[in-house]
Specification:
36% of the residues lie in helices and 17% in strands. The protein is an alpha/beta fold. It has a domain of 176 residues: Alpha/Beta hydrolase fold, catalytic domain (Rossmann fold, 3-Layer(aba) Sandwich). Strands 2-1-3-4-7-8 form a 6-stranded parallel beta sheet, sandwiched between helices.
């Protein structure tokens, strides 16, 4: 089973649930530009299609002709698209707080590309945020877009920092903060999702995406083959108090 973390997280995001999967070969990776993985070469942006190719390259290097995917947030979206691209290779698809993309109107494609180019230029000239010590960086991660407990933030931060002159900075590629150059339309996304043949289960938190995007579950319901579980936690519920329940759900699913 290959585990895919979320945007600006890293493989350490699975530290709470990984021990529950001793019945299978679980590999949690730092996706390109995250954690301790190298940044992509050149000045190009990060696009999920490149990550999808990475998934199958990793599986090939491990000798996996077929395998299961477990993804969180951006990793869940990438996992779903991967399962729709090569459905014959994915045996199970487990999703945590993510499956839907932010679809675009085709007429807005020029503006989207322009935004991405401007974003890349901005990140290329932006000064790095430097933290004097790891403790300060952990506190900053606790207060992110989706707040984290101290233990969860500590795990993510310790794997996601690098030592530089004057302190520490994030090891993730700043280009990840730039908008994507191309977005899928709703019709394109639906084509990928409807091409999935693997059983699929989604775990959501009441204080996660559903709280910010009230129509999220209604949209998910339009894909009836996705079985949804609603728990009490937030966006990173697999790292917090709900971690054991998340693990139990997927233990049963991945058998």
């Amino acid at each position: 089973m290959l585990a895919l973390h979320g945007w600006l997280d890293n493989a350490a995001s699975f530290f709470r649930i990984a021990p529950h999967f001793n019945h299978c070969h679980l590999v949690a990776v730092d996706m390109a530009g995250h954690g301790q993985t190298d940044h992509r070469i050149g000045s190009s942006s990060y696009h999920c299609f490149d990550d999808i190719r990475d998934i199958f390259c990793i599986a090939d290097s491990l000798g996996w002709k077929q395998f299961a995917l477990l993804g969180h947030s951006r990793g869940a979206i990438i996992g779903a698209l991967a399962a729709g691209t090569f459905p014959e290779r994915i045996t199970h698809l487990g999703l945590i707080e993510g499956v839907l993309v932010e679809a675009t109107d085709p007429e807005k494609s020029p503006q989207q590309l322009a935004s991405a180019i401007k974003g890349l230029d901005y990140q290329a000239n932006k000064s790095l945020t430097i933290y004097p010590d790891i403790k300060t960086a952990i506190k900053a991660r606790e207060r992110g877009m989706f707040p984290l407990s101290h233990d969860a933030a500590k795990s993510i931060t310790e794997r996601g920092l690098k030592k530089i002159e004057g302190g520490f900075c994030w090891s993730s590629d700043p280009r990840l903060l730039a908008p994507t150059p191309v977005k899928l339309t709703h019709q394109q996304f639906t084509s990928f999702i409807n091409n999935i043949s693997a059983p699929c289960e989604l775990v959501m938190g009441k204080k996660g995406l559903q709280e910010s995007y009230s129509a999220y579950l209604d949209e998910v319901a339009s894909y009836p083959f996705i079985k949804t579980h609603m728990l009490e936690g937030g966006h990173h519920l697999h790292m917090e108090d709900d971690a054991e329940e998340v693990a139990r759900i997927f233990q049963r699913f991945f058998v």
